[in-house]
Specification:
The chain is mainly α. It is about 65% helix and about 0% strand.
Length: about 200
């Protein structure tokens, strides 16, 4: 099959990410993407293996964009300032780029992302911020899971209009970040068993 002029894996991935922001990540299909380019579905198979491959590419693109934003936000900061900057950049991306953000939440085969620069950078920045709280493994993994669950849960509820109380959503977010800072500062370190 001869590749269609102008179509590349990167161009298709970017277009699929844009489409995800417009119609929702779960609604991105090869047919919808082909329609955007005015080509038949079969034309895309020279550039992406299948829908799962395309979704994985969008997830990796979005993950890289998200960590780039976070890196800029946390640069030169530590402790609570870094946590607040990290949280703010995460939330802004989730609300501004809903389809891309949804892509970052899918499960990806670890062998596909193990050596990617975005994953290394995500680990370095996130763990670096948490080490400032004096955390080490296994507490680092537990703290990352707490942050991700809190940030994702809040963003998912906010984007769905799930906060109906009159309290300002930003004020609640700020208090949640304050509470996370307290939790990280007073982290209950896991007792290691004696040998």
């Amino acid at each position: 099959m001869v590749p269609r002029a102008g179509l590349t894996p990167d161009r298709l991935t970017e277009a699929a990410a844009d489409l995800a922001d417009e119609i929702g990540f779960e609604n991105v299909t090869l047919a919808a993407l082909a329609k955007r380019f005015g080509v038949k579905d079969a034309s895309l198979y020279s550039h992406v293996r299948n829908l799962q491959d395309l979704r994985t590419r969008v997830a990796l693109l979005a993950g890289g964009e998200l960590i780039d934003r976070i890196a800029v936000a946390v640069a030169g900061r530590a402790g609570k300032d870094a946590l607040a900057a990290f949280a703010g950049a995460y939330r802004a991306y989730a609300l501004e780029r809903p389809g891309r953000y949804a892509a970052t939440q899918i499960r990806i085969d670890q062998s596909l992302i193990a050596g990617t620069p975005a994953l290394r950078r995500t680990t370095e920045i996130t763990y670096g911020m948490l080490r400032a709280y004096g955390l080490a493994e296994p507490d680092l993994t537990d703290a990352v899971r707490l942050l991700r669950a809190t940030f994702h849960g809040y963003c998912a509820l906010e984007s769905a209009g799930g906060f109906g109380a009159p309290r300002d959503v930003q004020q609640s977010w700020d208090r949640a970040v304050d509470a996370l800072h307290v939790a990280l500062t007073h982290w209950p370190h896991e007792e290691m068993p004696d040998d």
